[in-house]
Amino acid sequence: xxxxxxxxxxxxxxxxxxxxxxxxxxxxxxxxxxxxxxxxxxxxxxxxxxxxxxxxxxxxxxxxxxxxxxxxxxxxxxxxxxxxxxxxxxxxxxxxxxxxxxxxxxxxxxxxxxxxxxxxxxxxxxxxxxxxxxxxxxxxxxxxxxxxxxxxxxxxxxxxxxxxxxxxxxxxxxxxxxxxxxxxxxxxxxxxxxxxxxxxxxxxxxxxxxxxxxxxxxxxxxxxxxxxxxxxxxxxxxxxxxxxxxxxxxxxxxxxxxxxxxxxxxxxxxxxxxxxxxxxxxxxxxxxxxxxxxxxxxxxxxxxxxxxxxxxxxxxxxxxxxxxxxxxxxxxxxxxxxxxxxxxxxxxxxxxxxxxxxxxxxxxxxxxxxxxxxxxxxxxxxxxxxxxxxxxxxxxxxxxxxxxxxxxxxxxxxxxxxxxxxxxxxxxxxxxxxxxxxxxxxxxxxxxxx
Amino acid sequence: xxxxxxxxxxxxxxxxxxxxxxxxxxxxxxxxxxxxxxxxxxxxxxxxxxxxxxxxxxxxxxxxxxxxxxxxxxxxxxxxxxxxxxxxxxxxxxxxxxxxxxxxxxxxxxxxxxxxxxxxxxxxxxxxxxxxxxxxxxxxxxxxxxxxxxxxxxxxxxxxxxxxxxxxxxxxxxxxxxxxxxxxxxxxxxxxxxxxxxxxxxxxxxxxxxxxxxxxxxxxxxxxxxxxxxxxxxxxxxxxxxxxxxxxxxxxxxxxxxxxxxxxxxxxxxxxxxxxxxxxxxxxxxxxxxxxxxxx
Lengths: 450, 296
What we know:
Chain A has 450 residues and is α/β, with parallel strands linked by helices. Chain A has helices at 2-24, 40-43, 64-73, 75-81, 93-102, 115-123, 132-141, 144-149, 173-179, 187-200, 218-241, 250-263, 278-281, 289-292, 351-360, 363-372, 390-400, 410-413, 416-431, 436-446; strands at residues 54-60, 83-89, 109-112, 151-152, 155-156, 159-165, 168-171, 204-206, 296-301, 322-325, 336-346, 405-408. Mean pLDDT of chain A is 86; it is low at 1-7 and 10-40.
């Protein structure tokens, strides 16, 4: 009880002092900080030590509301250890991080959304290997797959931070019930349902939007990755992303065509926007809206689509909108999901940087961030009950289920020349009318030789 | 500079010259010459910094996506200076001494005040597409719909989409051309114009034989300035299409290859080509300026 009361008192004071610090614009940490030592709240952070005038700069792609929540989740850590976190989020992260590292103005910590980019930075010799403490934390909290994503040429560099699950198909439960449509459990059933909806003529079965500035096309890569993983299993998937089989291997072409049967058919898309090509001019964040407006039935997008719905939309199994996982092609193969996540690479090895690295790799951080809502983590120490929505809970359970085959988003694992360039533009040209053979050949040709 | 003054008498002048030139030369070396040499070397290396000879240039002149980039840049460089200058000139001539000249000028000059990125975003809305059964939000497609046409994917339909991007640059640059040329027209001595009138020259003859020769210098400055600007065009393309749908130009492709695809060598090779394209224009401009000084 006393605990709760003191926490109630500490939080506003802590928040107030943090905001005052920000207002004062000075990084000096008063010794009479609120909370004080020996407080129940700070006990959890004692192992990280305390620092005077320490500042760690963090750079990532996360902006707006997500960034506020992120900063909120390390506020207590800052408060108790005295490590000020100077956070900077930018949509230009992917191009800027390389420039900054080359120019000698790298941040202390960078949160990489793509293992491929992390590997490039590590191979260029900019990153510092992760301290033992972080390595142990990752062994404890994550599966081996996840640790491998942060490992480059046998050296472990980066702990995972948050995760997202891709491959959800969003729909309105009430509409499905009204029309008597069943949530499909196999890909074939999904195709049948697509035909049924198109036949009824009341709405298009699918809506999609691939427009995302210079990254236009990426939502399409998710589609293809989902199909490859489900159709040919994780082994072929791994061979595909590591280029052990060519990008235009017949099996990959099959998966492309499987997706094309839906996305390149004017009968099936693009509800609420127009024809097939309108997929390219529809911003990905707006593409799901017709689902709510009954102009399209289904929308394929990762778990973060939950924040793209208008304010006040209830995301739940019996709510305004809900999602089922893209069904398996062969039900006997079990569940396989693709997803993404962030990895935290360090450009500096000062003690305060390593302290923050260790905190970000801990289950405490995962729990603190997830409790803010709108995020999940694959950390085993995460309590699914903390999830702020049914969807997050479902995603966490999927991630923590030992039987789930999880594979990282393929385009994020491929070299930048493919995963952040030719694969995207390949999808764009494909939707714009080029044939699968032509597109996969072009992407294959662009694969770097080394 | 005090030290320069104390140099021995015989070589004093040379020392003085060196003293005054040194800061500029050092800055040039650090800011221009060295990076240029470094870029030239970079263009001969692969993605991991290994030496690959002319591979990047081979890629540039054989790969279809790179060739499209070069083709588009040529289209840009031909059309933008030509159209922006001629529209600017015609406008300047027509509104010369018209009523409300100031307001009419301001109208055309205003886009000049908008950044390329801002203009790109504005025009993206103008070209925005929605399916025929939706309400249009793009001005052009709404006009098409009023005329009973199908809405058009202005930015997706190659090759004409490049022309729609070029229109944005012309929209910006016309104001610049108009203002400079208008000032030059105002500088034509009235005696000549009056003499021509008395001789019974038609408006067209006046324009051909008096206006154009008199403002030739300004005209060339305008065309070359816009040409250099057009060769470097990047922001418009990146904001509106990011170089997709066969609209990429050299500067945009350079950025994409160097910073997104992780191919600094290819980016450097493209930068070098861009430099070689701009060079003749700059040299011509410099020589012309020198000639004009001699006349004066």
